[in-house]
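Table S7 (text form). Paired inputs.
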Amino acid sequence: MTSVVDERVTDEVEALVAILMDDVTIRRVGNVPTVIETVVNPSTGEDIDQQYVCVTLEVRLTPNYPDASPDIVLRNPRGLDDELLASIHSQIKNKLADCLGQPVVFELIDLIRENLTACNLPSGQCVICLFGFAEGDVFIKTQCYHHFHSHCLANHLISGKKYYQEEMDKLPNWQQVQAPPYQPCCPVCRCVVTTDVETLKSAPPPVESVNAPPFRVTPEMLAMQRKMSHLLARQIARGGVVGSGNLGPRPLTITTAADAVANNGPSQAAQETAKPEAAANDQPGNASNDCNEPGSPQRQAYRGPYRGFNRRGKPGRRGRGAVGPR
């Protein structure tokens, strides 16, 4: 965009600021506007508490705007599912084609607001109970535009405060004094939630949770349980599970190729018959000899505790704790 601003763009920006005031942000490079940003809400008159959805519209003005279409970005959608967002994007594309050559920001704001007004209910699921929002549900919109059943959010906040107090009771008194006070947080974005828990507790549970069929174990679930049990048993056998009693391996085990054959191959008696010379040449107390040349005597695996250098002295230096011959 050149330093000379199109008069149509100047008039549009002035009108947006006059109508939307603090609800619109104009970014400029020098005196040239480059980005127009505003949060679009559904039309609910003066009742702001009934606005359950919103989206941030970002219009990036191209150098030849309005003779060329601007770049449109919808950010931070709240309470909107992917299907509705795809529909809005499609309508925006058609609107840009119809309004080519004239300012279009007001048209885009009205288009998005109409869609939000028609779908002014949160879509998706309550992230606490995983049930959707149905007719008859009592739900709440937090300051961060996240939606929960009032009953579910009350249980979440009560449990959070209880857990906080249990952890505080484990601390010494001086740490309890310095610890920050409990603050109820949104379970999605961790923003502070300011609401009356007692009022939320009086709300009924979600409709879908009351009408849901009783839980039953399906054949698919049983098959999955058997599969996971087999995988767990295999991991335990290979020492891949921490904290499974004495079933895991020792912290350090030095073995030889003969040990691997003994565990996975023929029996020990067959190995002793096949390799009598190797058994005769074993030298107890020596470490493993996996990298010896062919024909060299086989050494017995070291089964004792592993020790590196003596920590009281450095290797190669004599004195107290020195390692090496005196």
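Next pair, protein 2 of 2.
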Amino acid sequence: MGGVFGKSKKPVSRVTEQDKAVLQLKQQRDKIKQYQKRIEQSLEKDRQLAISCLNKGQRERAKLILRKKKYQENLLGTTDKELEALEKLTSDLEFAQVQQQVLDGLQVGNEALKKIHEILTIDEVERIMDETREGIEKQQEIDALISTGALTAEDEDSVAAELEALVASTLPAIDEDIDDKLPAVPTEEPELEKKKKKEKEPHQEERVALEA
């Protein structure tokens, strides 16, 4: 039991064989560049050494050193060609990876599109379009009926008759409500008016006596 549960599945590596190949090519390219750098340094040293031998009168030794220098220059030219080939191969391989990714994306897209086409057949699309068209036409008819300008003369007469019927049925109730809310008209003379009349009566009697 412990051995079964103790084993864990190794994670799936995302590094492809193409990635490994590109990495190896770049490593070889770097090694060649390092080799070229060493040769260039050696060429400068051989040149200075040949000059030193000539100054000392060692002509044959200087010639031998220059032969070695020439051989290394030829090697440097060869490594330049190899380096160019490696860089081109690396670039082609990386571009091939990009193309592969594009093809994979197209494949996934095509499969998804096929599944959609399996769900939505031509008949299904036509059915949906017909239902949509019917819904739009029905809504347009409703909008036309709601619009006043779309009513016929007969419809207008019917609306006017219904309006008059509503007015006739609501007016009596409105009049009764108004009568109930209005204050009652007083039938007796207010006290203030009585008091004013009493104050005016003595003056009127005096005026009559003076006139007599």
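The radius of gyration is 58 Å.
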